[in-house]
Design brief:
By secondary structure, the protein is of the alpha/beta class. 43% of the residues lie in helices and 17% in strands. The protein has five helices and six strands, in the order ββααββαβαβα. Strands 1-6-5-2-4-3 form a six-stranded mixed β-sheet, sandwiched between helices. The protein is globular. The relative contact order is 0.20. The protein binds adenosine-5-diphosphoribose.
C-alpha cells in the first residue's frame, strides 16, 4: 500500500502535519522520544500538556506542535511490557488506532509514528511491529484520512525489523495484485 512507508530518522525533524509522541500517562514529558519532542517543541508544549489532565494508556490527545516543524503532536501512552499476558497487544493497537482516529477527526492528512513502547517500556520490537503494522493497515484500509502514514524508526535495525514484519504480513497482497 503506497499510503504507508517505513523510514529511519528523528521524528522531531519530521514535516508531517502531525507526529506521534510515545508519552506517559501524565503527558508531562520524559526521556526517549517524549524528551526529544518536548525539547524540540519548547515550553509551549508542556504548558498545553499541563491543561490536559493526563491520558490513559491506549488513548490519545492532540496538542499544537509549537517550535516543531509538525503542526500537531498526538500524545499516546503505550503499554509497559509485562510479559505479554496483561493485554499489552490490545493496548498497543489502541494507541495506533486512537491516534489515527483523532487525526482523521481533525482532518490531518499526514501522520508520522515512532515505534511506541519499544524503548523504555520494553515491548519486544518484532512483536510491537506486528501489532503496529496491523493496526495501521487495518485503519488505512477503511479510512481515506490520513492519506499518508509513516513509521519513523530511530535506527536502521528497527527499520529492518519493521520492513521484514511488513513483508511477512503483506508481501503476499502485492503478489496477488500482480
Ligand atoms: N525519533 C524517532 N524515534 C525515536 C526518537 C526520535 N527522536 N527517540 C527515540 N525513538 C524511538 C526509540 O528508539 C524507540 O524505538 O522511539 C521508540 C520508543 O521509545 P521511548 O521513547 O523510550 O518510548 P516508550 O518505550 O514508549 O516509553 C515511554 O518513556 O520517555 C518516556 O515519558 C516517556 O514514560 C514514557 C516512556
Amino acid at each position: 500500500m503506497d499510503r504507508f512507508s517505513i523510514l529511519v530518522g528523528d521524528i522531531t525533524k519530521s514535516d508531517a502535519q502531525a507526529i506521534v509522541n510515545a508519552a506517559n500517562t501524565t503527558l508531562l514529558g520524559g526521556s526517549g522520544v517524549d524528551g526529544a519532542i518536548h525539547r524540540s517543541a519548547g515550553p509551549g508544549l508542556l504548558a498545553e500538556c499541563r491543561t490536559l489532565g493526563g491520558c490513559e494508556t491506549g488513548r490519545a490527545k492532540l496538542t499544537g506542535g509549537y517550535d516543531l516543524p509538525a503542526r500537531y503532536v498526538l500524545h499516546t501512552p503505550g503499554p509497559i511490557w509485562r510479559g505479554g499476558d496483561q493485554g499489552e497487544a490490545a493496548l498497543l493497537a489502541s494507541c495506533y488506532r486512537s491516534c489515527l482516529e483523532l487525526a482523521e477527526a481533525r482532518g490531518v492528512e499526514t501522520v508520522d509514528f515512532p515505534s511506541i513502547s519499544t524503548g523504555v517500556y520494553g515491548y519486544p520490537l518484532a512483536q510491537a511491529a506486528a501489532v503496529a503494522l496491523k493496526a495501521i493497515m487495518d485503519f488505512l484500509r477503511d479510512h481515506a484520512l490520513p492519506r499518508r502514514v509513516r513509521m519513523v524508526c530511530h535506527t536502521e535495525r528497527a527499520a529492518e525489523v519493521y520492513r521484514q514484519t511488513y513483508n511477512m504480513l503483506y508481501a503476499g497482497e502485492k503478489a496477488e495484485r500482480l
